[in-house]
Design brief:
Layout (H helix, E strand, L loop, with lengths): L9 E7 L5 E8 L1 E2 L8 E8 L6 E6 L5 E5 L11 E8 H4 L14 E9 L2 E9 L1
Parallel strand pairs: 3-9
Antiparallel strand pairs: 1-2, 2-4, 4-7, 5-6, 5-8, 8-9
Amino acid sequence: MPIHPESSFQQKSSNTTSDGVVVTVEGLKTRYTSGEALDFAVTAKGSGIFCPKPIAEIVKSETGETIWLVSGGSLCQQDHPQDIDKKWTMHDISDEWIPRGPLFLDSGEYKMIVEYNGATIAQDFIQE
């Protein structure tokens, strides 16, 4: 999806795990002004295998270089489906050793990739 320089809006993208849990990333904007911190949330809803946290990564679009990685994704804990209705902020996903303050990036084009139990969601955004 091309990002128009004059506009910025919050994106909402979803994907479904193989067992039917709908995973959604919401709140990430298409464009951030200089000095504006990133913010987003991940939700998982439905009946399926529960995993404690998603994995979130931000990469530079041009080089694929990882800028921010939260490998909070732990092993899924159940072998049988259960009802899931969970929301994580970007700080909930973070492991304890990752600073919990605002996330600021250098100017450029980026892609955020979120993975939860096999469902992957990618969103592009620009930091001015």
